[in-house]
């Protein structure tokens, strides 16, 4: 008799306990979300800025190599890093990452199609530079390098604040 009575009772207690845990879990998540989200967005701003600094470093290294008539395989390597970085570029500007220590203009989010197109033109320009360098053609590499530099500037005029 004792067993028959206590079985449904303990069953109820387990249900209540798991409901309480569920509610606690939900409250915990809700409490953490804003801080966690802000941190994630700070990270993505720092991440894209660090990547862009690396891109500047790539351009500098390429410029020096071309001026010194150096090894084009270095140019091929650096420009490949640019291709890969700019392929993933729009994803580094998720919704909500328009605040804080960013110099991105609101147009990055409000004119998304054009921003993505500008990133696509950068991928194309960096690919062209990579192919020219990989083929060993110094003149074509120099031309593609100037074009790539212009492509950085074109996006900055539209999407980067001073
Ligand atoms: C598709 C658009 C786009 C292209 C292409 C682009 N940039 Fe930018 N760049 C931006 C935006 C937007 C910012 C501002 C980012 C921020 O502060 O969140 C920026 C910022 C920068 C910064 C400042 C980073 C910092 O520390 O704050 C550097 C350096 C930079 N870009 C270099 C380059 C170079 C070099 C290229 C070409 C190889 C390039 N960018 C191509 C959009 C672009």
UniProtKB/TrEMBL annotation:
UniProt GO BP: electron transport chain
InterPro entries: Cyt_c/b562, Cyt_c_II, Cyt_c_prime_subgr
Family annotation (Pfam families): Cytochrom_C_2
Molecular function GO terms recorded: electron transfer activity; heme binding; iron ion binding
Protein name per Swiss-Prot or TrEMBL: Cytochrome c
């Amino acid at each position: 008799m004792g067993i028959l009575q206590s079985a449904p009772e303990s069953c109820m207690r387990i249900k209540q306990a798991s409901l309480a845990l569920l509610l606690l879990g939900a409250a915990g998540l809700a409490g953490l979300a804003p801080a966690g989200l802000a941190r994630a967005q700070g990270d993505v701003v720092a991440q894209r800025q660090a990547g862009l600094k690396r891109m500047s470093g790539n351009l500098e290294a390429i410029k020096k190599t071309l001026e010194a008539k150096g090894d084009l395989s270095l140019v091929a390597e650096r420009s490949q890093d640019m291709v890969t970085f700019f392929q993933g570029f729009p994803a580094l500007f998720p919704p909500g990452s328009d605040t804080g220590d960013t110099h991105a203009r609101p147009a990055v989010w409000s004119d998304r199609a054009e921003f993505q197109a500008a990133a696509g033109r950068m991928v194309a320009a960096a690919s062209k530079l990579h192919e020219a360098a990989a083929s060993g053609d110094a003149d074509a590499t120099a031309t593609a390098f100037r074009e790539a530099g212009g492509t950085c500037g074109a996006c900055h005029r539209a999407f980067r604040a001073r």
